[in-house]
Predict the 3D structure of the following.
Amino acid sequence: MTESTTIIARRRDIIGKANRRMTDEIPAILYGTGREALPVAVDRHDFELFISHHGAGSTLVSISVEGEATPVNAMVKEVQTSPVKGTILHIDFLAVRMDQIIQASVGLHFIGESPGVKAGGVLMQSVHTVTVEALPAELPEAIEIDVSALELGDSLHMSDLVGPEGVTIVDDPEVLVCSVTTPTAEPVEEELVAEEGAEPEVIGEESDDGKSEES
């Protein structure tokens, strides 16, 4: 179940490119059911610490907005980061009602030891998140997948996943989630040396009498 954490948000007057001058705070937007979009700013250090512990997916937060008496229940909908520095540039908070089912993206957490992996196979993960429906307070931080029964050649699809009580997985049931495959053999050093030392075949090379070997 997702635990709610309180985040203090200051009303923000600075918008657009001017947000780049903000260093100790992160610009954000709070929007959703029953309210107009509100530009806010949150403490950078506090939010980065929060994300490092909880991640950005399906995270329920209680936002204490400057000037509002009642905190707002919201989800961390999107976190934009710099492709160069990796720093957080902007946050989208989606206000939610605790009595209404919502959709959210949830990460996958693999547990157990696969016999196929022990036998030399490789666990290949095809997807890293799933889309689920649940009440905000029932959203899990991750869906656990037990791979302890997977032998070489076995695989799991969305239809094999089971969410916690009250959580429904809504992705296509035919989507491949993971599989245990045989690793591809890499050429040994002797084979590589032999290939490098082999002379290329020349098509139409002339013979000693000056005529092409092809006729």
Summary: Residues 32 and 95 are 5 Å apart (CA to CA).
